[in-house]
Every structure is written in structure tokens, then in C-alpha cells.
Amino acid sequence: MKDFELIGFPCAVVVGKRLSEGRVEIVDRATLERVDVAVDEAAEKAAEMLR
After folding, report:
1. Model-level pTM greater than 0.90?
2. Which of 10, 13, 19, 28 could be cross-linked to 33 through a Cys-Cys bond (beta carbons 3.0 to 4.6 Å apart)?
3. What is the dihedral of CA 3, 8, 6, 22, to 10 degrees?
């Protein structure tokens, strides 16, 4: 997690234990808001956060 902060990525997709359930977490770096989304929706949601 430190690397995405050092590099300056505005958000991160966190793949964890819930991957087996088809879920990942997207973290907004500016607000530290965490959003739990389905794997197949992760790219679209991350793109929305970048706009």
C-alpha cells in the first residue's frame, strides 16, 4: 500500500480475502474512502473515481 502513495496513484484496487467471493476493494487516496465492488465492475468504478 505504501508504494501507491509514494508513486501518487489516485486510487488503488486492493485484492484480498474476498476475491474468492468475487469482490475487491477500491481505495480513494485523497479521502481514504473504501468501496467494495464486484471484480467485473472494478475497472469501471476505478475509472469513475479518476474523472
Report:
1. no
2. 28
3. -20
Separation between Cα atoms, residue 38 and residue 33, nearest integer Å: 17
The one-letter code for the residue type at 45 is K
d(CA 20, CA 2): 24
Nearest CA-CA partner of 25 in 13, 33, 39, 17: 13
Q: What is the tens place of the pLDDT at every residue in 5-19?
A: 677 778 889 999 999
Residue type, 40: D
Report the alpha-carbon distance of residue 11 to residue 17 in Å, rounded.
19
